[in-house]
Specification:
- By secondary structure, this protein is α+β, with helices and mostly antiparallel strands.
- The protein has 2 helices and 5 strands; from the N terminus they run ββααβββ.
- It has a 5-stranded mixed β-sheet, covered by helices on one side.
- The radius of gyration is 12 Å and the shape is globular.
- The N and C termini lie far apart (41 Å).
């Protein structure tokens, strides 16, 4: 399935400055791995050595947090928008 992945500003240097990147896959994890074929440093930055999503990132499919769905196994349909949102901390 073809989806659009919205890249946050802090990670755009890893996608040649692109703020949106098309990618295919049946799940969020598949889409990220497909994206990683074109941008390997991007995939390394958002996933751990075991393939898990790094804890400082939140991912949404059409505005729904994947943590409350099936995490990286969340299904993706044609035309879905996947947003990667870094956590913000401060005090």
């Amino acid at each position: 399935m073809a989806a659009t992945v919205r890249i946050p500003t802090v990670l755009r240097k890893l996608t040649a400055g692109l703020d949106e990147v098309p990618a295919t896959g049946d799940s969020v994890g598949d889409v990220l791995r497909t994206l990683g074929q074109s941008y390997p440093a991007f995939l390394e930055r958002i996933t751990s050595e075991t393939g898990e999503l790094r804890p400082f990132l939140n991912i949404f499919v059409n505005g729904d947090d994947i943590r409350f769905a099936q995490d990286l196994d969340t299904p993706v349909s044609d035309g879905d928008e996947i947003s990667i949102i870094p956590s913000v901390a401060g005090g």
